[in-house]
Amino acid sequence: MEPFKLIHPNDQHTAIASSGGANVKFIAGGTNLVDLMKLDIEKPAQLVDINSLKLQTIETLSNGNVRIGALVKNSDLAYHPVIMKNYPVLSEALLSGASPQIRNMATVGGNLLQRTRCPYFYDTSFPCNKRVPGSGCSAINGYNRMNAILGTSSQCIATHPSDMCVAMAALGAIVHVEGLRGKREIPFHEFHLLPGQTPQYETTLKHGELITAVEIPAIPYAAKSHYLKVRDRHSYEFALASAAVILNVVNGRIQTARVALGGVGTRPWRAVLAEKVLTGALANEQTYRTAAEAALSEAKPHKDNAFKIELAKRTLVRALKTVGGMS
Amino acid sequence: MNDILGKPIDRVDGKLKVSGGATYSAEYFPKNMVYGVLVLSTISKGRIRNIDTNQAERVKGVVGIMTYKNSMSLHFPQGTDPGSGKYAEKDLLPLQNDRIYYDGQVIAAVMAETFEKAEYAAKLVKVDYETESPIFDLKTNISKSYKPSSGGSQLQLKRGDADAALQSADVKMEQTYTTPVYHHNAMEPHASVAEWNGDQLMVYDATQAVSGVKSLLVSMLGLLPEKVKVVSLFIGGGFGSKGFTWPNPIVTVMAAKMVKRPVKLVLSRQQMFTTAGRRSETIQKIALASNSSGKLTAIKHDTISESSFVDEFVETAGLATSMLYSCPNVEISHSLVRLNKVTPCPTRAPGEAPGTYAIEAAMDELAYQLKMDPIQLRLVNYAEMDEQRQKKFSSKNLKECYQRGADAIGWSQRSPEPKSMREGNYLVGYGMATATYLANRVASAAKATLYADGHAEILSATQDIGTGTYTIMTQIAAEALGLPVDRVTVKLGDSDYPRAANSGGSQVTASVGPPIRAAALGVIAKLISLAVSDTASPLHGHKEEDIIADNGRIYVKNHTDRGESYTELLNRKGLQKLEAQAKTNVSTRDPQGANPAPTGGVDAAAEEESKTNPAVQEDQNVDRKLYSFHSFGAQFVKVLVDPDLGTVKVDKAVAVMDVGKILNLKTAKSQIMGGMIFGIGMALLEGTAYDPNNGRVVTRDLAQYLVPVNADMPQFDIQFIDKPDPYISPIGAKGIGEIGITGMTAAVVNAIYHATGKRVRDLPVTLDKLI
C-alpha cells in the first residue's frame, strides 16, 4: 500500500471542497477500495472519509419515489420494509452479494463504484488496460472464465461485479451527485460506461463529484420482481450469470418489462432487446426463451466463457418464469 | 480413569482459541522486532539481470534488503527424510543465485520498522529479468514424462498380467480422469519470527514439523543443534503445505542475522499461491476388466503428474489402487513431467485424494456398465488381504461400513437408472465410494512428569495443527496416569521436547499416543515402586502388579481404601516430581516407501529408559512387517441438481469410517467432516487457474480460488466402527486426518452421474460441464 493522507470532514460541503486535488478519493465502507489499495491497484494520495456526512436515510418522496442516501449500508437497504415489499428485486440482489459482514460495511454509493474482479486487474504484475491504459488486456487471450460476453471491446472484457447495480439498472434508478459546480442527476443507464477504447473510465462521475443518493422510481408492479443469481458456490461468490426481472403482467399478457443481466456484462446490463420482445407478448415459455435469445444476441464469447451465453439465457428464462408465471 | 478414551470432551485449547489466547506464530513480538516482506519473481523461467533496490532502500524505516547478492551462503540440507526435515526444494536454496525456475520464487526480502513500510518498499524493488521460455502445461507436455527415481519400485507396481487380462476380458472400462492443481489454503498463512541472541536462535514458525525445521536450520546454516529452538504452539491448519519447509523460515532467520534484529515474516494470501507448495495436476488413465458378474480380472492405473526443475515430488495417486480390491492382474505406474512451477508437495491425502477419486469413479462406471449395484461390485471384489504385498490387513471392517452407510443414506430408495429420480424441480442422485488411507505410524518419544501437587505434564515435540492433538493426547495421558483430564497438561510444538512425529500422513495419533501412554505408565510404575518399598505407605510390601492407579490414587486392586494419593506419597518422600520418558521405535510404513520413518535425532535418554519400560517393550514386540496397515471407510452422498442451470447441491453426506479406536468422538467427527468438506470442494469448486500464455497463477485469492462455504454444506452423518486395530499399537487408534476426503470426491461425482446421466471426468464438476 502506498502512504496516503486521510481526512475526516464533518459536512458535505467540506468533503466536496476537499476532493478537488489530483488523486483524491472518497471512502465510505471501504470494502472494495481498501482491498484495492492493499494490492497497489488504487493509490490515492488522499482519502476523504465521508462516513460523518448525513447521507444515511431512506425516504419515500411525495411522488412515490424512494430516495436512498449514498451512505446507507447494503444490509440496511436490503432489509428495509419498503424495499422488501415494493422492490424485492433490489433486496434479493443485495442479499445475494458478498457476505453479511461485508454488506454491513458496504454502502450504496460505494457499490455503484465497485470495480471489476477480473484476476488480471487484481494482479499488478500483469498487463491490464483498465489499470494501466495501453498496457494491453491479459484476459482476452488469457484465463477468462469469469469475464464478460456483453459490452466487451478489444481493450477490455472485465465483468462488472455488482449485484445491486443489476437491480438498479432494471429499476431505472437515478444517481444524485454533487460537485463543486453543483448538483446533477444521472440516469442509471448513463452512469456506467462501456470500456470501449478507454476501459480506465468506468463511470460518468466527474472528478470531485460525490454520490449523495440513489433514487428509485415508483413502479407499482415492481412488488412482483425477482433477482436470480447463478454461481459456482451457493454463497459469497460473484455471479456467472444473474437476472433482475420486473414484469407487469395483466391477463396473461406482459404490459411492461424491465430486465437486466449481471455477471455477463462490462457494465450492469439493461437487456433492452429482451424488454422489446417481452412488451406486449404473452407470458409464456416461448416468449421468455425468445426474449433470452434476444438478450444474448450480441454476446461475444471468449475461450473459457462461451457457456455463459446459454447459462445467461436459462437464468433469464427461469427468472422470467418466476415473476411472470406461465399463461 | 479408564473411561476417558473415546469421550467427546471439548477441546482442551478451545477456550484459548475462541478468546484469542492461543498464540500463533505470527503473534510474537520480540523486543526491537522488524517486519520482513518477500519479493517474488514475476516470470516463470530465466535469470535476474539486475535487481535495483535503491528506491526501496530510501523508504524511511527500511533497515535492510536481502537479495542473492548480499545474502549469506547456505549449505544444501542433509538427507531428504521428512522426519529429519524436508526442505521443499532441495536444489533451490533461497537467495543464493540469479536463476528463476518458477513464478513466485523468492528473490528478495525487505525489512522495515513497520509492516506497511516493508510492504511498500518491497513493491519498489525493481527487477530486470532475462526471460526464457518456460514449460508450464502438463497436458501438452506429456511427451516429456519420465519415471521418477524417488520412491523406487513402490511407484511402479505389477502383479499378474493386466494387459493380457484386458485383451481377453468380457467387460472393459477405460477412461482418463483429470484433476487440477489444488492449493492448501490453510486459514493461517506461513509465518515465522526469528530472534538471534548471540549464537542462540529462537524461531517461531507455523510448521507441521518443529524438529524438521530445526534440523534444516542446523544443516543449512551450519548451526549447533543445541543452539537452535523452534516453537509452533498453535497452527491454523497445514494440510501438507507446512509439512515440508519452504523458504520463509530460512529467509527470516537469514534476515534477522543480517539486520541484527528479530524479524517477523508472514506470507500474504497471494504469496501462498506461488511460494508454499500445491498439489500437482494429475492425468490418470484407468482400465478395468471384469467378467460378466463383475469380478475384476484386471486393473491398470497410470498417473502422470507434475514435478519441478528444483526437486521431485510424486503425487502417488495409484498406490491405494494396488490393495483396494481383490484382482489377480494389476499394474500401477507413476510418471512425472518437470514444469516451471513451484514444486508440488503433500496436500491433504497426498496420492489418495486424486487417486481414490479416479479409481472409485471408474468402479462406478464399471458398475453402471454391468448394470450392477455399485456396492455389490465392491463386495464382489472385496479384498480380504493386501494382495500386492501379500499381507493380512491389520484390521478391516469395510463390509460393515458399506452396510451402515447404505442404511444411513437410504440407498434402498435409489432407483438404479441414471436421471430417474426427482424431487420438485431437482434431479436427485445417489453416489458412493470407498475411502482409504494409510494407517501410518513412526518412531516418537515423549516425557511425562507427575508433580507433587497432583498435576502432570506431558512433553512431546509433535504439533497440533488444529485437529485436536492436544485434546486426545491429554485423554491418553490422563487415562494412563489415572488422573482427571483437568490435572494433565500436554505441551507440544517445541523442538526442545522429546522428538516425535511430524504432523503429516495422518500419523500423529498412532505414533505419539503410544509413547505418551508408555511414559505416563512409566511414571505410575515408579510411583508404585516407591510406595511398596516405603514402610510409611499403606501399600508397603504389596506386589506391584496388584496395585492400580486411578483418580489420583494408587491402591490395592479391589480394595479402594487400601492406598494413598499421589500427592501424599510424593510429599512424604520429599519429591517435587517424578519423571519418565519413553520412545517407541515402531514403523508401519513400507520400508521401500517414499516416506520412510524418521531416523536420527534420537532422544538417547528416552531410548535407554524405554528398554525397561514394559509398555514400550510390549508395543515394540509386535511384528508389524506381517501386516498391511490401512484405514477404510464408505462414503455416501445425495445430490440435488438443477437440470437447467447445472447447479449442484450436496444434500446429504454420510461417512462410516473404520479407523480403529476412536479417542474423542467430537474431534474425530470434526476431522472427518473437514475431510468431507474438502471432498465437496474437490468435486465441485476447487482448482487453481494458470495463465495459458505464461503459466503464472491467475487465481490468487479466496475470492477466485473457491472453497466450500456454509451454504454449500449438506446434512452430515458421520459414524465410526470404533474397533481397535490390534496391531497398530496398544491403544488401537489410527490417524484420521486424511481419510475423510478420500472417498468423498468420487461419491459426489458418482451421485451427479446418477442424477443427470452426465459423467464428468475432469474436476471440478462446475455447472458449465452440466448444462
Main features:
heterodimer; A: 327 residues; five-stranded antiparallel sheet; B: 771 residues; alpha+beta; Aldehyde Oxidoreductase, domain 4; seven-stranded mixed sheet; five-stranded mixed sheet; 30 strands; 25% helix; globular
Description:
The complex is a heterodimer of chains A (327) and B (771). In chain A, the strands form three sheets. In chain A, strands 4-5-8-6-7 form a five-stranded antiparallel sheet. Among the domains of chain A are: 5-52, Uridine Diphospho-n-acetylenolpyruvylglucosamine Reductase, domain 2; 221-324, 2-Layer Sandwich (Enolase-like, domain 1). The longest helix of chain A has 18 residues, at 307-324. Chain A is built from 13 helices and twelve strands. In chain A, strand 6 (174-179) and strand 7 (182-187) form a beta hairpin. Chain A has 327 residues and is of the alpha+beta class. Chain B is built from 19 helices and 30 strands. In chain B, a hairpin with a 2-residue loop joins strand 9 (191-197) and strand 10 (200-205). The model of chain B is unreliable at 592-602 (pLDDT under 50). Classes of the chains: A alpha+beta (327), B alpha+beta (771). The interface between A and B is medium-sized, with 35 and 35 residues.
